[in-house]
Structure prediction request, 72 residues.
Amino acid sequence: MPWRELRKEHRHRYGCETIERNSLKVGIPAFLTGDVRLLVFRAFERVAMVGYKNHRVFYVVWIDREFKLYKH
Prediction:
């Protein structure tokens, strides 16, 4: 599915949304500098993946199956 279609999806279905760094309950790796925008992407309704997008690729840093990674 292209990114433009993912942006149209509801954020709790298969969409994505930006997440604030201070929402995370875990430490952020040093390679994720302040200029890197973190996103929550849902490939499955009940599994959130947090990471970042570089060009057309989404890099998964965390998988949040139990909804404990960030404030919901």
